[in-house]
Amino acid sequence: MQICKELAAAGIEQFELFDPGRIDRQAMAHHFRGWKDFGRYKTAIAQEIILSFNRAANIATYVFNFDENLVEFKQACQHADIIVCATEDNTSRVKVNSVALLLGKTTIFVRMLRSQVGGEIFRVRADNTNAPCFGCLLCTGRFFQDAEEGMLETQKSGFQYELAPVISYST
């Protein structure tokens, strides 16, 4: 939600928001708008936040798992200047990375660690610079070595992290 707020305040006007989730008890720990949003779709809340900072914004919301609808996700991202991936699940992040590379889109990957004491943010440039992509970083094993975050354990058990929004936007 904070990402949407900052992008809207910076004057970004075109948003495509993907998130099947609703605000639940777990999300309340870091949701800054309080209990009034409990049970609501995250995309609807993000849309309100964006419009409160930029009334000229044009917003499309999708309440499905983008990784189960990659064709529609790819179509929605074709005109984006940049993709912001805020999902915590590495499988979903790899799929966003694949679509971004296919479309030649720069992507910002961001997530909070499960204990919410820190996070990760990095940019993947989908140009001809041979810069590493998300898949390259994932193959190094770096993202599976945060044992205190429970990532090793959850990967073995097949647990899926809750999806957070994926945002594509253009100016």
Keywords:
171 residues; 7 helices; 19% strand; alpha/beta; six-stranded mixed beta sheet
Summarize the structure.
The chain is of the alpha/beta class and 171 residues long.
Helix content: 25-40%
Q: Distance between termini?
A: 19 Å
- SS-based class: alpha/beta
The string of secondary-structure elements, in order, is: HEHHEHEHEEHHE
Structure in words:
There is one protein chain. By secondary structure, the protein is of the alpha/beta class. The protein is 35% helix and 19% strand. Strands 2-1-6-3-4-5 form a six-stranded mixed sheet, sandwiched between helices. The chain is globular. It starts with a helix and ends with a strand. The relative contact order is 0.20.
Secondary-structure topology with pairs:
Elements: H1 2-9, E1 14-18, H2 25-28, H3 42-53, E2 58-62, H4 70-77, E3 82-85, H5 90-103, E4 106-112, E5 119-124, H6 134-139, H7 151-157, E6 166-170
Parallel strand pairs: 1-2, 3-4
Antiparallel strand pairs: 1-6, 3-6, 4-5
